[in-house]
Amino acid sequence: MRVVHVSDCFLPRLGGIEVQVAGLAKAQAAAGHQVAVITATPPGDHPPDPDVPVHHVIANLPYELPVHPRAGRHLTRLYRTIAPDVVHVHVGAVSPFGWAAVRAAVRSGLPTVVTVHSMWGAASRALYRALEATLRWCEWPVVTTAVSEAAAMLIRQASAGRADVRVVPNGIDLEGWRQRGDNTRAVERGQVHVIAVGRLAPRKQPMTLLRMLRRARQRIPADIELRLTVAGDGPARAGMQRYLRKHRMTGWVELAGRLDRTEVHDLLATADLFIAPAKLESFGLAALEARIAGLPVIGRTSGGITEFVRPGKEGILCDTFGELVDAVVELATDHGLRERVTEHNRAVLPTHCDWPSVIESLDGCYALARRRRPSWSAVPGRRGRQLAAGGR
């Protein structure tokens, strides 16, 4: 099957969507699909993958914004050249390039799947409700998926229950992230290494991370050496550095900057627990990597982490800031609890997230999209235009 993935953002930009789309494309190519990627992200110095050609639709905009004012025209031309059996579009909260790709695919009569990788907050849900009133996007002959039930629920709310949303989790190489051997030597010396991985942006709540670790440090006995390593980069970095200097935390907190996948894997091998403080985490790929490596995970009850972390089993899930602090203190001071969670996480893997399972689920979505493919090239519009769709 010829599959073309479309994403506003792609490598060399490094984030959850970029990493996931690249991994999915590579896994599908290995499974026998013919795969290509279309993106609005400039190529930079990222080396090409011979198995997955990447087409860049670039506009000369400030800050290399991944949008294009005439995206539809360029995407339609690329669809004709590639001639895909299905178009798989990946969107976040607001993805103008991605939604232009959906419209162009439907107008071209191509089977289309849309995957939502983000949690739609109140503003996003209001926007999509307004778009439904004008563009009738819930009636488009596309298959909509979300990466978690938490993300799917918000899409259904935005559509007043009209959108049919399937849940297909992000995929991961289980064996590639699995850690083997004994990771407890540092713990036995009275050291606890906490890590967090992600973009240093406000929605990831990096300042909440620092505040909770500072509060936890005040409650953890002095004979336990607590360290925090934060991997990632972004606009919040300067503010984090100021906070660390102000509260004299630079001696035990390290901002490691952007790390590649190998470096993140090596960092997990040195750690004792993982924290994901963000409230609106649609899936939590970095947390999944840590959970597979065996680390107890501290996260929120409101996000997609609940798909692979259960309270008291793979980690601790929290509602409030105070509960996050309590969880850090509990896991940092209870070596036996950390050891039990680590042994469980290493022994019981989330097989529903491995690439063969994810590819099988997406193949089912692609087959459904082909049954729903539009029978004429029009998109629902403002004056009640309806799209004739086959197989609905």
UniProtKB/TrEMBL annotation:
Keywords assigned: Glycosyltransferase, Transferase
Occurrences of domain Glycosyltransferase subfamily 4-like N-terminal (ranges): 15-175
Aminoacyl-tRNA synthetase in keyword set: no
A single MF term (Gene Ontology): hexosyltransferase activity
Region forming the signal peptide: none
Residue ranges of every copy of the Glycosyl transferase family domain listed in the record: 192-346
CDD domains: GT4_PimA-like
Biological process, per Gene Ontology: carbohydrate derivative biosynthetic process
Keyword Glycosyltransferase: yes
UniProt-recorded name of the protein: Glycosyltransferase family 4 protein
